Amino acid sequence: MNFACVLHLLGRLCMVLAALLLLPLLVCLHDGTLDSEIARRFLVLAAGTFAGGLLLRFGFRMRPDDFQIPEAFGVVTGAWLVFSLVGALPFLGSTGIPAVVDAFFESVSGVTTTGASILPDPALLDRALLFWRATLHLVGGLGIVALSVAILPALGAGGNFLFQAEASGPEKDKLLPRISSVSKVLWTTYIGLTVATIVAFLVAGMSPFDAICHGFATSSTGGFSTRADSLASFSAAVQWTAIAGMLLGGTNYVLLLMAARGRPRALLASTEWRTYLGIVACVTLIACAVRFAAEGAPGGAEELLRSSLFSTAAVITTTGFATVDYGLWAGSLKLLLIFCMLSGACAGSTSGGHKVIRLILYWKVVTRELRRLIRPSAVVVVRVQSRVIPDGILLKTVAFLAIFLLLWGAGSLALLFAGVPAEAAISGAIACLTNVGPAFGELGPSGNYSGLGDGSKALMAFLMLAGRLEFFALFVLLSPQAWRR
Amino acid sequence: MNLEIVLHVLGRLSALLGWLLLVPVAACLGSGGLGSPTGVALLVTAGLALGGGWALRIACDWDPARFGPGEAFASFGAGWVLFATLGALPYLLTGTLPVPLDALFESLSGFTTTGATLFVDPAVLPPPLLLWRALTSWIGGFGFVAVSVAVLPALGAGGNFLYGAELPGRSGERLLPRLSTTVRWLWILYAGFTLAVFAGLVGAGLSTWMALCQSLALVSTGGFVTSAAGLSTAPAAVQWVASVAMLVAGLNFAFLLVAARGRVATAGRNSELRLYLLGFAALVAVFLWAGGTTSSAGLRGAILAAASSVSTTGLPLPADTWRVPILPVAVLLFAALGACSGSPGGGLKIARAALLAKGAFREVARLLRPASVLVLKVDGKPLPERVLAATGAILVAAMLVTAGGAVALAFMGLDQASATASAMAAAANLGGGAAAPGSSTSWADLPALGKLVVMALMLLGRLEFFSVLVLFSRHAWRR
Asked: Among residues A44, B115, B201, B426, which one has the fewest Cβ atoms lying within 10 Å of its Cβ?
């Protein structure tokens, strides 16, 4: 790995980060608190990050040939670490987030769009900091590097590697000849969806500040809210808006863009998208039925459907908003929600988890094996939507499952060792790996992560990063070959 | 698929079971006599198995040329179901388990070496039936070893030649040249091992009768015990013998065979064996840590529990064992990883888990060098890609089936922890006595549908999913 090259590029990314650090000042400007301590802190941090970025950028030189595959993984992992670390700095010492580990946890949770919080009541936090949490979501949603590739032409040459290392899903298409144009297109769609969500929230009656913060957290499928009870105390219209926003956020952005441009056929024909909506519909209906059988519908049929659909959408898109405490539901529904956590939404969206396309491929791996057992000499080709899936992709898909199970098992055991109760430890490890946020037990929708020990918090922050980068980019750096110069 | 050939094989298997049923019949001579209800029930079952088997053998022709992988897999799946059905008759006819589903549950639990039992106190069973119960898991254990070490490799079926076809030593040499010879050697080894454990248990102070039943259930990693308290209150010496027996039973029998023929060093160079022992040591440490004790009794208990778990025997342990939340989770995870391949133990099997880990990290390495060809090696030998694909498919199938089972059990009213624990314990053939580790619902308290789900999981887990799933594939039924 050519460290000079990696540091040079990280320097450029720091300058993007510095610009982002100025955004919360807009809130201070609106509130008339520009002379407050928190505004000064953001200003100092922005200046410091910018200076650091400049130093790195001009202190280390990069020749175009230097940028190869190992460097791409170095930059991607480095970028996420830098953003998580610098993103934690504004929280440090603020009321509500006293400890360093807590600030780091909150920042990682934000930038990985997990939405797990150590804050018992976010409303106590300064508004600028609340906005900063939402900004972390927005930036992490489609990927830091995708953002940088979109706005930094200098990354163009190696951008493809970078993009591949960060993008989600088993198969990464190069949709347009230039990767920077792909990034631009995706980010335009993403911003478009975010703005549309914010406008819809405003129309539904949210205050502008809440609408913006929740809009960022919805389209990025993050899940940070400005209130302790998440979206529970907002109106039904707001909740329906959030449902739509989350479900769209879990849709493949390329297909979404095509649909927005008047070509919905590709979206409607997508096996993955149909399966995704099918799962949402099934789980919602089952949840409605089981809950109705258990407790009736005290809030009426609409409320039952809305809260069931909301919870399902919040979990499967790995957003993690809540309007009811689904931790109190029957065990069968909890297991179905765990399945939704594991599943995640579509590849190429902002959601975490395995992605529905991987579930489809898992199924195909099993049926392929069945055919091979009966006809040992047959050449069995796996197809999704009549497109042939190469064996290499299937190998990688199974490898993804194996690494996921490894991290889940080891993570759960480590949390249990640290004294976390069983339900919280096992579901918490999943919720972090899949970037959902709220889990079950103590870490459920009505609880938070503040009761955990420092070690557990650090471990869970690692699980979130590993899950967001879909493991491979992170694990590459464990190989000595990546570090060879 | 050729149904006639499958039926012929089933006929032979049925007759074999008929002969084996004569063992508990003989035991009746010493306890209660042939005229007792137990004796009659066993004799009727033996007669049915022998007669039915003979009829099938005569009625259906055998043609080795048409015995392909499809027929083989169908025979395994149907064979286990047939054994479980016939094996359930003694429970049913004696009235010890008057409900047919319950009798089938107990019998299938035996033949799949799961050891999940509906008897809170097995001591109520008449001694010959107790022996039959232990025998079911002994037969199931041997059946699985024979199929995985000898039959599947001989067929070259799927990726299953992972098991024993390629042993260390002279490379490329098959374990023993002919299938029947291999099976005979395995039989001698299995019987010899059982005798050794029997002698050890008698020497440690168990009565001959108890030692017989217990040794059959230990060497097969079944885990049936003969009294409510099981082995947890047995004398120290008995616990030590049982621990060693279970630990050895979880080893690859192909390697045990190599070791038994004097090539101990060759067999010891096996990475799966090392990982297995490492996992065992780790689990002992977890039990000691959770128990907070370093007394010799604590160590002995930890070793017994850990050996029972890594070998997927699943001895019944006192309920307060699961008080520390990490213990049931760790036990279930280790059981899901499984024992060594080629052992009667269940679970994914350590060789598979290790192979999948290697495959996963090869994909990571491939990211750095997308164009390079990376060959997967196990113990220095390259492994065909086909094996990795088959192994991945088994992992995925295990996950899907276990998760589906857990959700189904939860819909029958189990809480999420009990549903998951029961599904995992059944699919890994762990069992765990009257209830799964960490489950608050005993097997006997499951609703009828829940018992069916658990039975399906036990069978799928034992036959490593694909032998059963193949029967539901439309390709299998196409001629």
From this structure: A44
Contacts of B359 in chain A (CB under 8 A): 395, 398-399, 402
Which chain A residues contact residue B438 at CB under 8 A? 422
Contact list, B407 vs chain A (CB under 8 Å): 332, 335-336, 339
Q: Give contacts of B406 with chain A, Cβ < 8 Å.
A: 335
DSSP symbol at A122: G
Which amino acid belongs to residue B370? Answer: P
Q: Closest Cα to residue B315, out of B398, B224, B227, B387?
A: B224
Spatial separation of the C-alpha atoms in residues A218 and A216, rounded to whole Å: 6
Residues 6 or more apart whose CB falls under 8 angstroms from that of A200 comprise A241, A244, A245
Distances (CA, A) of A408 to A386, A439, B74, B126, B333: 33, 14, 35, 46, 11
Structure tokens belonging to residue A54:
């400049």
Q: What residues contact residue B444 under an 8 Å CB cut-off, 6+ apart? A: B118, B119, B120, B434
Among A335, A400, A401, the residue with its CB nearest the CB of B416 is A335
Burial B342-351 (b: 16+ CB within 10 A, else e): bbbbbbbbbb
In the structure encoding, which two tokens stand for residue A234, read together?
A: 């907002």
* Over residues A228-233, mean pLDDT: 92
Tens-digit pLDDT profile for residues A111-138: 999 999 999 889 889 999 999 999 999 9
Q: Are B207 and B93 in contact (CB under 8 A)?
A: no
Distance from CA of A102 to the nearest CA of B (A): 25
User: Is B326's CB within 8 Å of A403's CB?
Assistant: no
Question: Could you say which of B333, B359, B475 has the minimum Cβ distance to residue A370?
Answer: B475
Ramachandran bin of A353, using left for φ above 0, alpha for ψ from -120 to 50, beta for the remaining angles: left
Give the Cα separation of B243 and B246 in Å (integer).
Answer: 5
Q: Write down how long chain B is.
A: 479
Cβ separation of A373 and B326 shorter than 8 Å? no
Phi, psi of B66 (to 5 degrees): -100, 10
CA distance A220 to A111: 10
Q: Please give the structure tokens belonging to residue B177.
A: 């040249």
Q: What is the mean pLDDT of residues B428-451?
A: 94
Model confidence at B156, in pLDDT bands (50, 70, 90)? Answer: low
Residue from the list B330, B362, B470 with its beta carbon closest to the beta carbon of A413: B330
**Who's near A409: CB < 8 A, 6+ residues apart?**
B333
Contact (CB<8Å) A376/B69: yes
Interface size between A and B, measured as CB pairs under 8 A: 166
**Which of helix, strand or coil describes residue B442?**
strand
For B348-378, how does the pLDDT look when each residue is reduced to its tens digit (9 = 90+)? Answer: 999 899 999 999 989 888 888 878 888 888 8
Nearest CA in chain B to A481: B368
Chain B residues with CB inside 8 Å of A379's CB?
none
- CA dist B99 and B92 (Å) reads 7
Cα B444 to chain centroid, rounded? 21
Structure tokens belonging to residue A66: 């230097």
Q: Which of B308, B349, B336, B274 is nearest to A408 (CA)?
A: B336
Q: Which of A365, A371, A396 sits opposite B475 (nearest CB)?
A: A371
| B196 vs B49: CA distance, rounded Å | 30
**Which tokens sit at A384?**
């999704």
A332 contacts B411? CB cut-off 8 A: yes
ipTM: 0.92
Residue from A6, A85, A100 nearest A45 by CA: A85
**Chain-centre distance of CA B323, in angstroms?**
27
